[in-house]
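hey so i finally got around to running the thing on that chain from the lab meeting. sorry it took forever, my laptop kept dying and i had to restart like 3 times. anyway pasting the input first so we r on the same page abt which one it is
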Amino acid sequence: MSVKRKLQDNLKRVEQRIADACAKAGRSRDEITLLTVTKYATLDLVRTLAELGVGDLGESRVQELTRRAAMLREWQGRRSLGGEAAANGPRWHMIGHLQRNKVRAVLPWVSMVQSVDSLRLAEEIDSEASKLGRAIPILLQVNISGVATQHGVAVAAATHLVEQLMTLEGLDLRGLMAIAPLSDDERTVRNSLDRARELFDEVRSQEVAGPQFTQLSLGMSQDFEWAIEMGSTCVRIGSAIFEGIEMAPEPAAVD
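ok and heres what got predicted. didnt touch it at all, straight out
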């Protein structure tokens, strides 16, 4: 079986699982964005995803995101010159920890930064956004696992930070992002996802954010069906989409 066909089959299975989870939760499939995480994908795989019409890609490392986004732009440009219709996108989302000294490099390439986890990072994005003449869509990353090594603002501090972010004109705060703990215990995972949803609802009910605060990015390959039940509007899926496909070795940490 070709790699392209395998990707098509995997995407179809993931789409069906999303549809089934939506039906179980009484939700519309249109409410959910499928964000394909490219962490271990080769450049050829990323290009194949674009050929298949995948609209949203997520990357956790700045160097890899900018390299892949530039490759896709160049490839689509060549196709256009060759007489083929040039499709828009995909849209890139930064989903990993972002250091302040990497903000300038990544902003020209992204549609959203999902991993804003401090006021200092937000202020750096705001400063660079003003130079680009745009407001950057962001999500506030919240640490719902309670694990100190995980990135994200503490749940108790999130509402106050939302109020501060709303004063920065270079930011367009769209909602929250969180990562559930990696656990085989369903109750542990569900409790963490529920904590994120409660915080999301609290921010909305207190009206400390604007009307655009509508996005809740929860769920990965191991828990996205539960996340959809809990109200997620964006699921970040990598391994389930690339199952059975040879991937690139993990690059050295350079960010």
